[in-house]
Amino acid sequence: MSEKRSLPLRFCLGMIQAVSLLVPRARRAAWRQEWEAEIRHRSGSRSSAASGGDLELVRRALGALPDAAWLLRQLTLDSEILQDVRHALRLLGRAPGIAAALLIVLGTAFGAVIALFAISDALVLRPLPFAEAERLVTVWQTNPREKLDKDDVSPANFLDWRESVTGFSGLAAAIPYAYDWLDATEPESWSAVQVTEGFFDVVGARPLLGRTFSKDEHASGRANVMVLTHRLWRQHFAADPHVVGRTVRLGAGVFTVVGVLAEDFELGLFSSGNRWLYTPHVVADHERRTRGSAWWNVVGRLKPGASVAAVQAELDEVSKRLAAENPRSNEGVRAPIMPLREHLIGGVRPALLTLVCGGLMLLLIAWANVSGLLVARAQARELEFAVRASLGAGRARLMRQTLTETLLFAGAGAVIGLGLAAAAVRALVRLAPVPVPRLALAGIDARAIGFAMALALVTALVCAFLPMLRLGRARLVARAREGRALGTRQAARRSLVVSQLALALVLLSACGLLLRSVAGLLSIDPGFQKDQLLALQVFAWTRNRTPASRAAFFEEAQARVASVPGVAGVGAVSMMPFSESAIDIKSPLSVEGKPVEPGSEPRVYMSVASAGYFDAMRIRLLRGRGFLASDALGGAPVAVINEVLSQSVFGGEDPLGRRLSVRFDGQPVLAEVVGVVAPVRQARLERAAAPEVYVPHAQFPFGSMTFPGDLPPRSDRPLGPRRG
Amino acid sequence: MNVTFTTALVLEAIAAGYHYGFDVIDATGLPSGTVYPALRRCEEEGLLRSRWEKAALAHEEGRPPRRYYEVAASGERWLQEARARFRRLEASVPRKLRPARAEG
Fold it and tell me: Which ipTM score applies to this complex?
């Protein structure tokens, strides 16, 4: 064993020793031994033919360099990041106050912004669940009498449009309806949609199960089929996959289920919230003539290539022709087209925009806040950075440290924010005071989580910017051994504080204004006692075909509701104020002794009310009396008017004892005014009450009535409110 | 882990009975700066196992023990897959690797 080493061998071993310094310490000894053993084994067995001499040996030994570099890259990168994270956590533990402040600020701001994203995503960003939804439009009609730009459509007008306008590949109507479900132990009312022929083709909805309606099912006598919404299917049919073919007993007869709609099918055509089932509509003869009252909702699909403007022009022509042919009902009535998406989000856009602006401002404030805190912290850690810099830590390394810390905060903030947002969205969806189409689809899903991650990343970059700027100076500070003027830094921090304050002020004043208008709305007296009120709508046309039986039915129903324990007072009315599915009847009205030209009488709200209605709603009686049991069918017709009507028709005169002509069931009826009540706002808090005349149900036996029930405060309500 | 031709070749060489780093370099003809990182990666992924050669043998030659590599069970499976993927692998493996299974 001669220890005489050749020059190449010595060179190789020396190089291995030098290169081994690159290898992370934990693996250094083993690494060096491996290379040394190979080299010395090779040089020792020089006789082996495989070796290519000294040159080959050196060449091979040089391969140790890439090997060591590979190990270095592999091991250090991981561990440095781990180190950074560990270091950041340690610092967090040392300053829990700042950490908590940072997390609270970031968490709340992220929560608000993520919740807003989730809602905007559901309402605006996500595509509508209909094939080629950009060709879908809604068609409305204007109502010049009440100065409405967008009113529901009358049946005859719809039928004429469908026949005459060529720009649609399909036009269909959806008609709000309700069925009584009789299979359950207690009957339930299901709000439904009756649709005209081809409705599902127009909207381009494919059913999840079964089929939609065929053409002949829109013919009289074949219409007892129904398509379930996904929700009804899940809640009342336990998502039964074999539901197609089952029969269901509804008030109007026995219906067969032919299909189930997909989960995301929510048309949002109606202001009245969710609908549970679809049935085919059979166009009745009288509907072909009905232009005066409008309650249909029309949806159309433009032909490929047809523009909204062109079809609108065509519709305008048809509207003109209809106005000329039917001046009484159609004078000045236009048919505006509105793209479906516009219809769905148009109403919520201002509110959404306000919210998004508020959310962004909150985010900016949070950024300013967090930047300020981080700068302050960086200042406190100046010495640490200075020492690390002087020990050889590069600027990039220190920057990475700062960024890691900020990312850690932002990530934790995003997690907190997601939690808050989930709660906020759930609360918002549940509390939505008015039905907002597609709002129920909002939730924290993968898209929201992705958004939160992006938000955290951007936040980390933004908030790490200022503290990172200081890192360049850390070396200087170290060199200067502290105690340098801090002028520029102070300026940066001051501007942060100022901008933060300015933003907060703007947000605060905006909030104040918003609160004031909400408080203003809340302080408006709607004209009735709105607390502790439950409403129950009943449709009794199909099983009570004569006026007398309808009068008797509602009289008995009211008596039976009144006997339910916990109900303090009950009445019945055709048009329940603020109800989602109020049925508003309009009647031409004239006063006996004040002749007007026929056809030019004012049309006013006419509500059919039972004796007891004014008491149950606590509507104040200003003069005269309300309805009595003696106002019965066959007796002299009576009416109660609201103060607005009293003022506009009678001015200063005494209305009591005067007789009004109203129209009921197509017939003019003369009714004596027996009372005046305080005005009740009909549909919207901010809109003043319109003239309204009340007639007693016993004399005007209407078939669709709502029972408002007055509950004493804090009773354990025997009747649960059911939201459809 | 990525099925690269280099890795496949290195594993193939070890499976064929070339258990030491420099022998693998000889057998494959690849440069040492390529073979060693490949060995490290394979070991990290569990495709290879390694241990030190018996100290007595090394002592006799007056050098440290060499590192002895062998293909682990998962490496065998990996190799099967790689062989299927590189249809031409067998053909491009230097001839002497093929019949050399008896060695080791």
Answer: 0.85
